[in-house]
Structures are given as structure tokens and as C-alpha cells.
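Researcher: I'm comparing several assemblies side by side, and this is the next one on my list. It has 1112 residues spread over two chains. Same procedure as the others: predict the full complex and return the structure.
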Amino acid sequence: MDNKEEHIVALKVMRLTRPTLYSNPVVSCDPRDLPGTTLSAAPDVTRLPHLPHLQLGEMLLLPQSFGSIYLGETFSCYLSVHNHSTGATACELTVRAELQTGSQRLTLTPTAGADRPASLAPAASRDHLIQHEVKDTGAHILVCAINYTTEAGVNMFFRKFFKFEVLKPLDVKTKLYNGEYDENAVFSDEVCLEAQIQNVTPSAICMETVTLEPSPLFDAVDLNTSAEGDGSVFGASGWLGPQDSRQYLFCLRPRPELRLASAKQLKGVTNMGKLDITWRTNLGERGRLQTSQLQRMAPTYGDLRLTIEDIPSVVALDQTFTFTCRVHNASDRTLALALRLETPSAGLVWRGVSGRPLGRLAAGASATVPLTLTARRLGLQPVTGVRLLDAALNRPYDYENLAQVFVAAPAPAERQPETAAC
Amino acid sequence: MAEQPRLEQQPGPEGPQQPEPGAEQPAPSLRSYFGSPKADDDVFSRLTGPGSRSSAMMASQVNLAQVAAPSTAGGVQVAPPGPPQLIQVPEIAPNVEETIAHEMQEALEYEERRPRFSIGPESAEEVEREVAEVLHQLPATAGEGAASTPETPEQSVPEPAAAPSAEQTGLHLDLTPSQTAVTHPRPDPDFDDVTQQVEEVSLADEAPAPVEPTRYPSGTASLEMDLPATPDDPSMSPAIVDDLTGSLQLHSAETDRQHDAWIPSERTQAVLDSMAHSLPGTFYPSVDSLTLPGCSLQTDLTDPVLELMVQYMTPTEARQRSVLTADSVTQDDRGIRQLIQAGCYRSAVNLTGRLLTNYGQGYGRAGQLSKHTANSVQLWFTRLALLVRLRQFAVAEREAQAWGDLDTADLFFQYYPDLYGGRRGSMVPFSFRVLLAELPRYMAHYQTSLDRLYQIHSVCQQITSNLVAGRSEDGSPSDLSEAARQQSLTLWNSRRLKVLFSVVNCCVGMKDYDQAIECLSQLSSELPRLSAGLRSAVGRVYLQLGNVAAARAAFASVTEAAPASESGHSLQCQQLINAALLAIGENDFADAQSQFERALELEPQNAAVLTNVAVCLLYRGRLAAAVTLLEDAVFARPELLQETVLLNLCTLYELQTSKCNRKKVALLARVGQNRGDGFNVGCLKLQSAA
């Protein structure tokens, strides 16, 4: 549709990725050697005078190729409109840039050059910079349309198309773990998020931040920092090689004020929040991605929840210990409950009366129940065999593997003399 | 588990992103112009698909890169990976720095000194002539020298306590090889003649160090500095040659030993031992334990600048190019130096080919028996160094194949007792080892390079610890003077650090930034006076990775670096450059530009900073200003006609107008007047006919 030859203006487009630090290979040579100092004396602007053996210099090289563009990066472009005629002025020149993707068209507004004079004298140029944060993968077409009027008053128009592919930089896999996976919450309402982030670009990138924006009902705790050193468990440099991945871990806790007041409501919440990821590549070229809402499978609590308030994690052999459970009535009716202590595991023995009534528990109310066990075997022992009986319906609620307790040998202070005696 | 819905799975990132053919074409990849040492770099390696223009040179380089087989596997001994262990030699550090600083200085000052000094061994003919002259005129002097040897070490090294100062060492270095040439004549291809010569001078050979202490009571250093001429000057009188000979003999033997020292592998040592214990001429090692190199280029390299001029300019204009060629210089080492000095690297390669043909190591001779001399090995080093400079990596790798890891018996002086007397050590210059170790990385075989570099590093450490333990470099018992020992320690420590620099370069190339930063930190602690520059380099590594926060911290630590920071940039200028690079990391090119401009005020001659200002101008939408700045600089200062500068300028030209060939040809004309045939014309982005 456009015959290039008849136009007096031309459009040139260059993608502005960050420049690179470039330098020539180092060839060092002892003055004793045959070339003497002739080789090292050759002027080279990329070489640092005080560090002649170091290749990494300070000189910037303009981008020499379009390169790859990734989802979340900013696409920057230089549009240069040049009047290459010898005597004709192009009047009323307008430059429009539009980005077409599979699903939409976006008009890009130049950040520079918009307010330049409308006419272009011979050999003059007009410069435009456009920037756009890429939000789609797949084929993109940059359409640049040039309108101008010749001195003779003829309207001229041409378009140029630049096609490029936007690729996916990261592969993000998430797993959500409800604290109550088997209806017996040890950590009550907490939800853990495991996010596996893999660099699928062919070069190393620097992970700048990975944060979890929780939904309003939750607080997020970042578990990716270590107590000692400079913080991140992944090391300070942020380096993530091609095809390498990292596991990020977050813990979501219901806001304290919501915890008991709206247990029912919490139960139905499936939106957990969004992951916000920023990374950088060469000379700080930045990219940012946000995931959509992470959904969890809603936990099914049933009518009753038995949670552990307080239990020792280590007990000594033959020690009798007491722990506290909280029984919460999650149903909408009042329950009359009885507690039965069924056959315990081999390692722990219940102490106390089985079948004692706990009284009436109103809808939404909770009560604490102290229970006592004696440790009979060494090792990690499960607390099992708690059964709550709903007297009205005669329906049992069994709680197997309520918690785990580590039974240790009697305290070292007692054993040491024995060992010494032996 | 939930796969992220928003990030759709795409086919892998292999496909090059080409604008529609017919529409705007992208600039071809960097690799096309520089044969990219960053061969794995996605940005650069991507855009070589159909539709992008590519020069002929690029095509050939890329193809060679694909064809080239990993030639190195066989000979490489794997060094332990990971950062090398340090040997604590604290008292040496200052000297090492001095040596390095001195070498820098030397390179900078070379312009003034060049015409008067000879650096390497000269042609066999010249050496023979000089030997003959020495023999005829002064047989007695040599004898005297021999008689007075025991005291000479102390006398010959002025101020032994004040350190084997780098300056002094450097001066000696300049002169010693010529001196060596006199003592141990480099054989002509015609071996019989040479052998005769050697037999005649055997007296001088066995006398370790003839010195004339009375004539130079104040030490030799100052005297050498004033020397008007060197032995390679044909007009020099024999008497002067002799003076030089006498005063330098000791340094020659001593520095030779220090520089040539190397620890052979056990296998090679066994061969050398067998040699030493058998009668001359009765021991012949098997052929496969010898180094049998040959040139791989059948025809001479041609001048690409001239070819492009013929293509784009009128014949009259093209004829105006006059550069040195292999035919227009003397057919010897001096000719090679002249060619290198003039930037005629291709002609210099051609000349090395001719000279090696004289040694029986020319085209097609690979794998066939030939004899090495110190000079032939130097020729090979020069040739391969030039090929790397020319980015003819594939050719270099092919020719380097025969050298393996430079550990065969015939590369040791001991292998030729009749030629080199009692001289010990390797004929292979240390730089040759480093060069061959670095070669694989230019073909993107980074791990091979690292293995070889760490192997060299461990030998350096071994030599250093031998010296510390009071033995000689190769571990044999010795009675080295304290001064000589310190001098050697300084030398080997500086060599070890050079290898570390190469490791850094390799790690940056392979984008193992963590290891690069670790090595740079180690260098920074060992070279405190260069720490400002080295810490800035750490910052740049972080910036390349994209870790802006860590880069900022590294740049901030430059301020804490010793204020006694050496030469190079002033601390202030370094900080401005760092701040500018950081601003680019934050995408603030306006700030970057102003920082670079302030740095340029401090160092108006710094062309890298000037180029960076132009780059910033482009990112701020001021193309015309960027072009003017670079263009003015290049036309006003011919020394800036360098590939990297011109590549930036031509990139700007191409953005400015589609009719930019005229401007590029104007640059070509300037290049034709000012640059030798080693110039990489790819940077002009002119399509070549080939």
C-alpha cells in the first residue's frame, strides 16, 4: 500500500534495552616476550588503565539486537523520524504508535517529542520515546503510523509494522496447605503457601523481591529469611541461573480479631492473596509480575473443632503430663458432649476418666479440656484416641493423630552419673 | 497445588524475535561483529536468524564456532574447583603491587621508549653476528667474569633490602632477552651452524655470570636507563654490546631462571630425568610425548580495511591506504614488533607463519617432527595472541591443539643440553600458558578454561611455597640469595594474581557472578592499593547481574577504600562513574548523564566516559546530540577510531537515517588512514561483498 520511494520522511525504530558493559578480550604479555609491550600498548578505550588484566570495563555499548522481551518487562522504543529529502519540508507531521496483541490494541503515547514542531525541515529529525509495560505473552505488533503533508499540500501517510514475541520469564507453581488438613487443627487456622519459582529464560536473573499480598482476612509471614547473616535464605546475590528454581514459603494467619469471632466465615474463604515478583537483569533492567488470586480448597471443619492449645513437645519417659484442648462448636445448634478416651497408642497411656460429660456447648462457643497422658515408650509418639460424643445425635467425632510428642530418655543430668559409673 | 493461571505456558524461548522482513530490520547481533566471547549471551546470540544482515566475517566465525571440536579434553588435568587457597606471604604484597603498577606504567610509557629498546630475542642471523663479534673482540672479558662469580649476586642487585624494586626488574627485563640471545644463541633452522657457534662460546656459557663490578660501582640500573641503544641496533658498536653483556650477565641468568621456572608433570619429569642420565644422542622419547605444532592457515590473512575501501571508495582513494605488510619489514622478531606497533596484526600473523616455516612448523606441519627453540615458542605465543586479538578464535584453537597443556619434555631447556647448556626451566612463556588456558572460554567452553587456570594457579602456589621453604622454584635444593628469592617470590605472586584476574574474566563471561565476586574480593584484599578499582568492579558485576541494591553497597564501599588509591581514576572520578552506572540501573539516564559529564570534566581524555555520555543522550531522546558528540571526538582524535566506539557511532547512524552509508564510508576513510590491518571492520556495519 505504501511505496517507500515517494516519501520524504523515513521512520527508524530501535528497541532500547539497557546498554551493556562491553570490553575486548584481554591478551596479556610479559615485556620479556617477543611482542614486548607492543601488544599491551595498543590503545583500547574499554580497558581500565589501572586494572589492565580485568576485562570488565566501564564502557557502555548500545544494544545490538532486539533481544528477548519477557512478560512484565517494560518495552521501550526509540522512534526516529528523519526527513531525508534535499529540499522539501514535511508539514503537519504526526507520529502515532499502537501496540496490537491477540486481544487488544493499545495506543502508546510518546514520552518525549510529543511537543515538537509539527513540520520537519530537510535533514531534520524528530525523536520519540515510547514505553509500555508488557502484560501479555505471545505475538505483539507495534504499528507506527506517520502522517504528513507535503509542501504541495498532498496528504501523505504510511505505516510500519514491527512484530515481536513476548515470552514467559518465570514459571510459578504454588501449593497451599491448610493447617487443618485432617480436621484436627494443630496450628488451627493457618495456611501455608509454597511457591516454586523457576527461571525459564536462558540467562541468569536477579530475584529482587517475592512478596505475598494476603487477602484482607489474613496476615502473611515471610518465612524466607534466616535469623543469622544478611537475611535471605537464598544468599545475598539474588542470583538465579537459567532453569534454576527456588521455593518460597509463606504462612498466612487469620487476623487475630477474626480468629474466633468468625470461624465459620474463615472456613469459606478461598482467596488467599497474590504473589508479587520483581526481578532484574542486565544493568538493572526490571520486570514485575503479579499472580492472580491464589485459591485454596476450603477446609471442611465439620460441626466440631478440637484444637490443641498447649502441649509439651518433649517429655521424659514415664513422665505424666497434661495438655489442654479447646473444643469449639462450629455448628449452629447447641451440643451436649461427652469425652471418651479410646485405646491409646502403645507409647502413651491416658490417665483420667473416660466418658465424662463436658456439658452443653452453645453454637459458636468453645470450652477448654485438660487431658493427661503418661509416656511409656521412647520416640515420637502420636496422641490418638480422643472421641467426642454428641449426645443428642449419638454421633461420635474421632480425633486420631491429634498431635505428636517426643518421648526422650530421662534427663541427661540423671543419666550421666550412671554412664560415669560404668 | 495450583499451576499459575496467569502465566500461560509458552513454547520455549528459542525463537528469534524478528521484526517482519520488509519492515525495519534489527541491527545484527553483537556476535556478528565481535565473534562474541559472550557466546552464551541470550541478547547477543539471539538475533542472527534470517532477516538480519550479517557480514561475511560473522558468518564464517559463527560457522567455525559450531564446527570447532572441543580440542582440549585430553591434555587437561582437572584442578580442584572452587576458589584457590591462599598462601600467606604478607611481606610480598607491596612488591607485587609495585610490579603490577610498574607494568601498567610501562605500557603507558611505551610510546616514548619504544624505538630505542629491543625486547625479545632477535633473528638468528643477527644473534650469530653479535656472538661472533663478542667472541672476536673480548675473549678475555668472559674469562675474568667467570673468575669473579662468587660475590656477584649481592653486587649485581643494588639495594637488595629495599626490595627487588619493580622498576629495576622491569629495566632488566627489557634488556635481558637480548642478552640471553648473546649467551645462548637462538639456533637458525640450519642447526649444524648453530651448534658450532655454541661450541665456540661454551666458555661464556659455563661461566655463570661474568660481571665487571669495578666499572659500574653504583649499580647497573641507572646505567641501563641511559643506554642510548640496544644490542639489536645494527649500528651499535661491538664494544657497547660487550659492556652490556658484562654488566647484565648475572641478571640475565638469574631472571631467566625466575621467569622460566616451571614444575613439569611427573611423566614429563621422568622423560627429562632419562635424558639427563643417558648419553647425549642416545635417548629418544616417544613421538606422542612431544609437541608437534604446525600452522593451519594456508594463505596469508588479507587486509579487510583495504578490501572494504576498494568496495566502497574510488580506486584513487583506496590506493591512498598505506600500511606495513609482512613484506615491508625485516623478516625477524623486530619486524613482528613493528607490525604489531602499527596495528597490522594480520600481517604480523603472516610473518610469524613465514618464520615458523623456517623452523619446520609451517602450514601442514602439525604432527611432524620439528625442533623447538625459545624463539620458535615465542613466535607461536605471538601468533596465537594475535589470533585472539583478531578474534580468530577457531583458528587459534585449532593451532593451539598441538600444544596441549604445554607440558611435554621438548618444551624444557633441559631437553637441549647442547643448545642451552645448563639452563633449566620451560621455554614456554608464562603468558602463553595463560593465553592457552583462556582460549576455550572464547569458544564458550568456560569450564575447561577455569580448570586450566586453576591448574596454573596451583603451580604458582607450589612455586611460591617452594621459595618460601627456601628451595628453588621447581622444588630442588638451592642456595638462592635472599634478594633473588624475594625477587622471585614477587614475580610468582604477581603471576598468581594475574591468573586470578583471568579467573574473574572467565567467571564474568560464563555469568558465574558469585565466583567472580569472590575472586574480586580476594584480589581486593591482596592488592589494597587497587581496592577502589576492584570494589567498583564488584559493583559492576552486581549491576550486570541486576542486583542494584548490592551494587549500591559495593560502590559505597569504594569510599572506604584506601585514599592512597593508585593512579587510574581519581577516587572522585571513580565515584562519579559508579554513581552514573547505578543511575542507569535505576533507569535514570538524566542523572547518569550528568554524573558522566562531571567525570568527563575531571578526565577529559577518558573516551569510555565520553562514549557513555553519548549513550545516555540517546536514552533521553537526544539522538542528534549523541551523534555530534561521538562524531566530533572520533574525527578530532584518531586514536579513538576503535571498534567499540565506532560500533556505537554506527548504531546511532543507522537509527538516524536509512542513508547512512555515506557517513560510514567517511569513517572508513579515517580508519584507512589511521589503523592497521588488525582493525575489525565489522563495527562499521557496512555490508561486505564477500
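Model: For your comparison table: The first helix of chain A runs from residue 38 to 41.
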